[in-house]
Amino acid sequence: MSAGTVPGKSSRPSRKEQILEIALELFATRGYHGVGMDDIGTAAGVTGPALYHHFAGKEAMLSAALIPVSEGLRDGGRARLDAHTEPADQLAALVEFHVAFALERPAVIRIHFGELDRLPDESRRIVRKSQREYVEQWVDVLTRLQPGLDADTARVRAQAAFGLMNSTPFLRSQLPREQVAGVLRDMVHRALRG
């Protein structure tokens, strides 16, 4: 799956997406400041200067990775909500969607945790706005599922659930992927329902 995609979208990545994926893996393992354009070029099999045909620089790569992912989560969440009418089904679909994302995109999660402040201000604003909208989708479902639950408490529960799901870059499990997904889904449902 390419950097700018979320679960459910499959297509052959373009050369630009391939380069971005390589850059993300390098950023995730060595840190943003530990990677230069020449490093990315070498890993991608192109000269550092040739990368500038695709990206203006490392900040542009980071923006090209994190903005579409944040927007994709928001839009993917909305699609799952629209596909179901009952809050319990909507919540199950959101959990399934995010767990799949977290298992497929641990490098993006790691970069988000450690490098979000490296984004230019406008890119960071776009990412944060998409994230807030995504969180509010979860809050809406939780408050409809549990009518006595206030929005602030639902927001804390949603954020805690994201912490569980987004722990994937730090898991050192030998369990099969689907078993890890099942554990995460079960824990998230328990956490969200209190």
What can you see in these coordinates?
The protein is an all-alpha fold and 194 residues long. The protein has one domain (57-193): Tetracycline Repressor, domain 2, CATH 1.10.357. The protein has helices at 15-30, 37-44, 48-51, 58-82, 87-104, 106-115, 121-145, 151-165, 177-193. Helix 4 (58-82) runs antiparallel to helix 5 (87-104). The chain starts with 14 loop residues before the first helix and ends with a helix. The model is unreliable at 1-5 (pLDDT under 50).
Please describe the structure with a list of short key phrases separated by commas or semicolons.
mainly alpha, Tetracycline Repressor, domain 2, 194 residues, disordered N terminus, elongated
Task: Describe the protein's topology.
Blueprint: H1 15-30, H2 37-44, H3 48-51, H4 58-82, H5 87-104, H6 106-115, H7 121-145, H8 151-165, H9 177-193
Helix pairs in contact: 1-2, 1-4, 1-6, 4-5, 4-7, 5-7, 5-9, 7-8, 8-9
